[in-house]
Amino acid sequence: FSCSARWHPPFLDMQVPLLGRGGGLDASSIHKTRIYSMRTLRTTIVSICAGLVVVATLSTYTPSILSTKMAAGSHIISQSVRQGLRVPPALARGSMGMRRTGLRAPMDTGRPGVNEMPWRSMYLRGSKPGVSVGASGGAYKGEHPYDYDLFVIGAGSGGVRASRISASHGAKVAVADDLDVGLGGTCVNVGCVPKKLFAYGSEITTEVADAKGFGWDYDKPGLDWKRLIDNKNSEISRLNGIYERMLNNAGVDVVKGRATVKDAHTVAVGDKTYSADKILVAVGGWPVMPDIEGKEHMITSNEIFYLKDAPKKAVIIGSGYIAVEFAGILHGYGADVDLLIRRDSILRGFDTDCGDYLRDAMIQQGVNIRKQTEAVKIEKRGDRDFLVHLSTGDVIEADVILCAIGRNPKTSGLGLEEVGVELAKNGGVVVKKDGQTSIPSIYAVGDCTDTLQLTPVALAEGHCFADTHFGNNPRTADLEDVATAVFSHPNLGTVGLPEDRALDKYGNIKVYKSEFRPLKHTVSGSDERSLMKIIVDKATDRVVGMHMVGAHAGEMMQGFAAAIKMRISKAQLDSVIGIHPTSAEEFVTMRSVSYERSKEEEDSKQKEPALAA
Q1: I need a surface site. Which of 100, 368, 402, 519 has the fewest CB within 10 A?
Q2: How far is CA 86 from CA 27, 307, 610, in A?
């Protein structure tokens, strides 16, 4: 008769019992462990002695396998985990190698690796040695000798998205969480989410003041800061749990600790090492601190969400979106705020008109913006009692000093440079459009790269990475016309190009502007006004930028972002019938050009004085 590696006698289709409480692994967990002892018979045997050969083979090969598998229950559990298999809870509780977090334990590299075991393929129905089937049973099949198909460093927005989508495609994935901020990274723990919650709360005093015009009378609102912090913490904990469950359900191994890259395919966490076909760096960014005397008395956006008491006199250093947002937030909670900016304008990179309009609105609301001013020294006088010495010679008091001058990629100490990964001057990982670094097997996404530092960008990059490498769907994130918002008071929303950059790119542009008082404030009595701006490429009539300063600007921009992404023309925008009465309808009713600009004409005018000289 003829025997091959695909054939095995029925009596070999068995389950091997394990030691300990819990009995044998069930068929659904390990796909009914099959022992292909007949694999050694690869040539056709045409003889009555074939049966004797089979018996001889079984008597020598099978017992060694059984003895290996029966050596110890904890060893079997660890080996099962390596293969991406589910382990009965009773066995898991009795094993020193299993963690109690509800997530599958990472590989224990202190024992022989998966691919070193002669019976590796027995756990994987229909697979071959060196083929990774993946915990979620997806379509991905990658032949390699590594512990994982993918090891992700960083459990923030981009890292978690890449991990779980890759696992859903069938890849075997691990992600390292360094515990600095928690699952979900900056956005969930000390960024977007708590900031937006704080922003909501800081608007209450304005809403109460506006209510008087509509006939409502309220006593002066009181603030329970501790309740705010407690409720914020509860929401963050809820989100941490969601992230943990998502990773667990996807079959992703979570490794606790700071990871470092040892070579193109090896990552170390503590005293353990893990090998992977691909390594994805998604460690995000970290606040920058200036090198001035007394800098240890400053806090960053990481700590601002955990203050025990509400600030009464805050000094904020910086002119970017974090500084501008917290100036409005803390002022809304009743603090006197000094915002120190090195230039005259705020929000570099945003449309200049909008930045200046917002700056003036903040000043009108009571935020003290000190232009062309820097902090040069901080002196502590007591508990939350500081003196801030300024470059102008002035000295101001503060109980909180928030440094928000920017964030740099958190790549220091990862070992990237040592293995040859190219980094930018600020530590950002230099990547190609698909996220690949100078080392072919190492990739990076999110704020640790030299691309846009926005949570939705990190999510998109992580998803594209997973689809490209494990989902048979090669694609890259389109970072053109990415919408964003500043949750300042009032909001600033933007999509597309600012005016100056549109002029540089297209040469001739038309600008439409509208500045008005929202209907609400005609009754509330507030002086708050709104600015809307549309930028059009004159040659094609395509809308290339839309910007707004005013209430709910971020919400409005999300919808218009889709229109700009689809390359809407000004004529098409004009054809839209607006929703009345809303502020948003102003964007589809601006018919008159405010002004036009020509790069060629402006460049020639700049050259004329030089020629005259």
Answers
A1: 100
A2: 11, 43, 76
Q: Is the per-residue pLDDT at 56 higher than 50?
A: no
Task: Could you list the beta-strand ranges (E) of 383-491.
Answer: 385-390, 395-398, 400-403, 407-409, 442-444, 484-486
- Identify the H or E element spanning 82: helix 73-82
Give 190's contacts (C-beta < 8 A, 6+ positions apart). 181, 301, 302, 305
Burial of 514-527, coded b for 16+ CB within 10 Å and e otherwise, reads beeebeebeebebe
Residue 332 has which token pair? 């809304």
pLDDT score at 144:
63
Q: Considering Cα of 561, then 567, then 570, then 574, what sign does the dihedral take? A: negative
Residue 299 has pLDDT above 90, yes or no: yes
Identify the bridge partners of residue 492 per DSSP, sorted by sequence position.
486, 549
- The pTM assigned to this predicted structure is 0.77
Owner of token pair 């002022």: 331
φ/ψ of 3, rounded to 5, equals -120, 145
* Spatial contact of 507 and 453, defined as CB atoms under 8 Å apart: no
CB 374, CB 391: distance < 8 Å:
yes
In whole angstroms, give the CA distance from residue 413 to residue 435.
20
Name the residue ranges covered by the structural domains of the chain: 10-129, 175-287+409-470, 295-405, 484-603
Is 81 in a helix, a strand, or coil? Answer: helix
Q: 237-249 pLDDT, tens per residue?
A: 999 999 999 999 9
CATH of domain 295-405: 3.50.50.60
Six-digit token string for 570 = 């000004």
What pLDDT digit, counting tens, does each position of 385-411 carry? 999 999 999 999 999 999 999 999 999
Determine the residue type at 568: I
Highest mean predicted confidence (pLDDT) among 3-12, 73-82, 140-149, 581-590: 581-590
CA distance 315 to 389: 11
Question: What pLDDT is attached to residue 607?
Answer: 82
Average pLDDT on 505-530 reads 97
Q: Extract the tokens encoding 432.
A: 């190609």
pLDDT digits (tens, 9 = 90+) for 552-608: 999 999 999 999 999 999 999 999 999 999 999 999 999 999 999 999 999 998 887
Right CATH for 484-603 from 3.40.630.30, 3.30.420.40, 3.40.109.10, 3.30.390.30? 3.30.390.30
Q: How many angstroms separate the CA atoms of 98 and 595, rounded?
A: 68
Pairing of strands 492-496, 508-516: unpaired
Apex CA 46: angle with CA 43 and CA 51, to 5°?
Answer: 90
- Residue 443 one-letter amino acid: Y
121 token code pair: 């393929």
165 Cβ contact partners less than 8 Å away, ≥ 6 residues apart: 462, 463, 466, 467, 470, 471
- Could you tell me the fold of the domain covering 175-287+409-470? FAD/NAD(P)-binding domain (3.50.50)
Q: What is the set of active-site residues?
A: 580
